[in-house]
Specification:
alpha+beta; 3-stranded antiparallel sheet; 15 strands; elongated; 292 residues
Length: 292
């Protein structure tokens, strides 16, 4: 058994949104559904997939929320970052940091940078130069939302009851017990192998993202996330021991203004070019006028 000091302190959401409804259309993720919601309009932002990346278009000035829904029957921990900054602690984001603990099937909207157990500073889309990340000297990762999802380490099973069985029954039960232990070990090994397979893919996606810099200047300033007005958003504390050190799932959503996403070819345009008129001077039928 690990000492209590090894348990990582996290936050658990004080309130949950509707949890049993079907997952919305624009969520990204498997263990957890991640959405970006425009709080001023109430709209869930459409997710555009482009070259292996997920993008949403933010409205400059609009407040927004990162909605996380636990899709499992057990607790999960979500370490959430915006613009490369942990949304709770304000540290440059890393997997090992604190996050939000969600109960089975729970959904929670993260609306800002946490300032205390009772308040957050609202997220809002703003020019990258006015973003919280750039104002604190960390401009390199402006324009990305990330959620690292961890499963919880299961509790050990209770010790078996010591019953006075006859010796013949003990001999028959022993091979069955060894078989169960072997199956459990194989499942754990398979899980670890899957985790190792995910690492090269994550590195490849990160490299591809760095190569996506647009060739031409963008029509509007890049968007970042500002440090807005204080809002009431209470949480409580809990402990959570992760099943393993690496996340079980990482969800990444990039964002910018609609103008910029159109310019980068991420949002397809269906504009029809105007049809030329062979007689542009005709307004209504008439007759040739007399000369002046």
């Amino acid at each position: 058994m690990k000492p209590l000091a090894s348990l990582r302190l996290a936050l658990t959401c004080a309130t949950a949104l509707a949890a049993l409804a079907a997952p919305p259309a624009h969520a990204v993720g498997g263990l957890a559904d991640i959405q970006v919601i425009d709080r001023d309009s109430g709209d869930t932002l459409t997710v555009y997939r482009h070259r292996g990346e997920h993008w949403v278009a933010g409205r400059p000035g609009a407040r927004y929320a990162v909605s996380v829904r636990n899709n499992t029957a057990a607790r999960v921990l979500g370490v959430v970052s915006v613009d490369g900054v942990n949304v709770i602690s304000g540290e440059t984001a890393a997997w090992q940091q604190t996050g939000y603990v969600l109960a089975p099937w729970q959904q929670h909207a993260i609306t800002g940078w946490r300032k205390s157990d009772a308040e957050v500073a609202a997220f809002h889309f703003t020019a990258s130069g006015a973003s919280y990340a750039e104002r604190t000297g960390r401009p390199a990762h402006v324009g990305v939302i990330g959620v690292a999802v961890f499963r919880e380490k299961p509790l050990p099973p209770p010790p078996p009851a010591m019953l006075p069985w006859p010796s013949s029954q003990r001999e028959e039960a022993a091979p069955h017990s060894r078989s169960d232990a072997g199956a459990s070990g194989a499942a754990d090994a398979s899980s670890e192998a899957k985790a190792e397979d995910e690492a090269p893919r994550e590195r490849a996606e990160s490299l591809a993202a760095r190569r996506m810099a647009p060739a031409a200047p963008l029509p509007a300033p890049r968007l970042g996330t500002g440090h807005g007005a204080r809002e009431h958003a209470p949480v409580t504390h809990t402990t959570f021991e992760r099943r393993r050190e690496r996340p079980d799932e990482i969800v990444r959503i990039r964002y910018d203004s609609r103008e910029n996403l159109i310019a980068m070819g991420i949002i397809p345009t269906q504009a029809v070019p105007p049809r030329p008129n062979p007689f542009p001077g005709v307004v209504r039928p008439g007759y040739a006028p007399d000369p002046s």
